[in-house]
Amino acid sequence: MTDRDTTFGVYVHWPFCAQKCPYCDFNSHVRHKGWDEPRFLSAYKREIDWIADRIGGRVATSVFLGGGTPSLMQPETVAGILDHIAKRWGIADSAEITLEANPGSVEAARFRAFRDAGVNRVSVGVQSLRDEELRKLGRIHSVAEAKAALDVARGTFERFSFDLIYARPGQTADAWRRELGEALDLAGDHLSLYQLTIEPDTPYAALHAAGKLVIPDDYDAGALYEITEEMTAARGLTAYEVSNYARAGSESRHNLLYWRYGEYAGIGPGAHGRIVVDGGREATIAERSPEAWVEKVESQGNGYVERIALSDAEQADEMLLMGLRLSEGVELARLAEVGNVRPGKAAIDELKELGLLETLPSSSAASRDAPNWRRNELDEIVMCSGPGLAPETQPLPGERIRVTPQGRLVLNAVVAKLSNSFRQTDRMDKLRSAV
What we know:
Strand order of the largest sheet: 9-10-8-7-6-5-4-1-11
CATH topology of the largest domain: TIM Barrel
Largest sheet: 9 strands, mixed
Number of helices: 18
Distance between the termini: 26 Å
Shape: globular
């Protein structure tokens, strides 16, 4: 096991929002009469205790407070959660502690208090730099408030990022170029740029089905994606994941932990986790309803509605699906270690011939001779510090596979093709022969 494999993250889900956005399918809820925050803090602590008792000692290398709108929490609540994580697991000195925030003036004014509570990175949900588009997206802040919040974030936290949504209805290439250019002028070392997708059971899904909401087709969306790649690269932001761009060393360490298939505890209503229990990986899923989750925690010590022991095959599928989102790709030796499988050579060769996949030699230096892919930026990705670790502790040895830009557009199909070709590794074959 490498240092990268043994890092540990904690995801804390805060489920409340001031308003539900019509495109959002996250587990978020509006409570106009408010919520009992001390009761929720107590429940968070109790669920942390339950997980800590189950998996034993860990040191958190990243903590992510997501939602929902975590910036609606009182800073004292954030401090209480972080203090309890430190008490039960410990938090590494170099840990990344991120809080998602809405850019309304009330939340921005509390940024300094969140910093004092222990947060050292903030991710701001800007979504658009056009007031008319913000209204269409159901956002309740203005562009002026967003810019003010980013100014406060820049002066308050060690690191900050913000999100934009593009490929919106009626958005042209020229309009996106102008808006993205403005965003890059405001950006620090990290930017998340998501194409609008129509998620099931959302107001946007109903409008889309009725023909009242038309988003760019695949061709036009692809053109906007190419503009995104071109403009971010020109500003020195590496596309280290499908929708995330950063300067080397400023990647989201917590999200890298997900994509590299590390271990993390999911705490709070609707939170998912992947924990290692007695050497096996377990998926946890918590009750989505905030009130029902609190009652479960109070009655049984945790709010989980599902705890699933993952098979080798399930772990291999998950690792592929997550890892192929990254420009560093998936190391085949680690896939074999995690899932006891290796994709068939014929499947890999076929995907390579179709221009959807490429293989890389055993060292990052050799990747300089590989076909160009996003300016051959793998070397920069290899040097990123990852979840709280220095670059030299995170070598990426072994043959790797990664999707091409064309493969990104059909990622699920690529993963299915590779998964269907899995064969057991020699290690597993020997174990079966011994039996």
